[in-house]
Amino acid sequence: MKHQHWIRSAAIAGVIVLATTGCSVLGTGKKSDIDAPPKTGAEAEAKTTSAAVTIDMIDDNSSQMTVYVKDAKGFVAPLSLGLPKSVSVAKTTLEYMVDGGPVASLLPSGFQALLPKGTKVISLNVQSEKKVAIVDFSKEFLNYDEQNERKVLEAITWNLTSFPTVEKVQLRVEGKDLKEMPKGKTPLDTPLARTMGINIEKSEDAEFGQSTPVTLYFLNQTDQNYKYYVPVTRLVKRTDNVAKAVVDQLIKGPDQKKGLTAVLNASTEVKSIKPADGLITVDFSSKLLGADQKASADALQSVILSLTENTGFNKVQIKVDGALKITSTDNQNYNKPVARPAHINPAKL
After folding, report:
1. Could you tell me if 134 and 172 are in contact, meaning their C-beta atoms sit under 8 angstroms apart?
2. How far is CA 77 from CA 58, 234, 344, in A?
3. Could you read off the pLDDT of 242-263 as tens digits, one per residue?
């Protein structure tokens, strides 16, 4: 019970010990879209503002946006969907995370929205100087299933902190600050951040309070053969070399009892990992390659997602035995540094 309490209070409140060498462990990779700037005079004078960015257009009426939902195994996972274009992109993504709402027809089989039915996003304002998003929900937000309490918080927090102007999230219901979640009593006395982790688990050799959190991207697959990445925050033995810990844990693979799929073969060898010149370079041995002398596309994408999530670098250069001539199984060229994708897990209906 003591361990469960520590995860609930420390991880949610964002005070997991980050044993790093000067940069935040979680949530420092490239972030995607945020609301367009206010257009009216009244909005322009508001104390809370948003930043304008370019988003991926699917057609004249929709744009690609990422939402966080629950999969069939109970994991919180990002999905990129074609949602209606709007001035307030972040608010739209939250509205499409409401169970029973318009997102239902867009989700692949096995996925479910986590915000309770009938929930309305009354307002979403960003305090630019503090990088805090303040979300005001209608009272229906409190009708969540208690077993989903943490998942709801993870989904909201990871969704909003995907935007470049948001690092923390504060929740309100009908205009009043939430100090704790009413059912599981998860404390909300400080704003939520990615330091809370997502789909959190503990490595066997790690001790609570003496660990470093690393977020790893493993694979999952639906009954309809739709493959997608699931972020898992694993508490590992405290280390200052976060990048090495990330790759080591990817090689170690997912908890076999949870049904996720490893992305790197257990025999994979890492020769070096070096941060420099705005990117992080990882040099694998030739065991990364298959019989066709190509590297798994899934493995390379997982390495890129995981390293950029944890290190603060937005680009990854992958080498094999010091060489740059690498081709993936989907025939992509990895000779140059690769940036973190703006959108993860494009949904296929």
Report:
1. yes
2. 22, 15, 9
3. 999 999 999 999 998 999 999 9
